[in-house]
Amino acid sequence: MSLKRSIRMLIVEDHAGLAANLLEYFDDSQYILDFASDGLTAIHLIATNEYDVIILDVMLPGVSGFEVCRRIRSDMHCSTPIIMMTAKDQMQDKEQGFSVGADDYLVKPFNLRELQLRVDALYRRKAGFSKTPEIGIPGIHFNPGSFAVRMDNGEQIELSGTAARIFEELIKAYPDFISYAELQDRVWGEREVDMNTLRTHVYSLRKLLHETFHYPMIKTLHGRGYRLVAPGKES
Length: 235
Hints:
Elements: E1 7-12, H1 16-25, E2 31-36, H2 39-48, E3 53-57, H3 65-75, E4 82-86, H4 91-99, E5 104-107, H5 112-129, E6 135-137, E7 140-143, E8 148-151, E9 156-158, H6 161-173, E10 178-179, H7 180-188, H8 195-213, E11 218-221, E12 225-228
Parallel strand pairs: 1-2, 1-3, 3-4, 4-5
Antiparallel strand pairs: 6-7, 7-8, 8-9, 10-12, 11-12
Helix pairs in contact: 2-3, 4-8, 6-8
């Protein structure tokens, strides 16, 4: 494994058997683990500690994983990568997970090695952002270290992990478009991701940007891909 330092990880899971399996599997020097069996404990730990990756179950007592994820992104403005675990495999549940800020989605039962590969991949992508300088186009600036999108008028928003990766690829491609295949490859790498997942992520990002900056920043080129639109330019 080429990772240079230990990955600090929070596991949020109320099923005692699965929690024990996860803690045992990741119990080596490569990982530093914290554990929570409910959503409120998880929120407290995230508020008082810094993690590299969060593994978050959906079905939790009290506060659901969806609500925990929403609070992490919207209330705490935390951009730590989140992998959601659930027994639900319906598309609407995945859409809900992505819409509240999840970076990845793993349906139970799953192979622990697959989870490890996804954890390591998210960590590498997160670590890579901090080394990238600010990217700018007319009217828009993006900081890959803080995930912040800033306009010339001072308005700004901080994106979460997958949304930030998608936005980075869009702003790098400007004024050209980026194809569906290129976006899938650059954001998810060798992982196979279907078009519904890609569209859901882009839809959520487009909606968030429009609500913040009040103009349609992402244009869909049907059958081709997506293009970033600078403020004041024709869409």
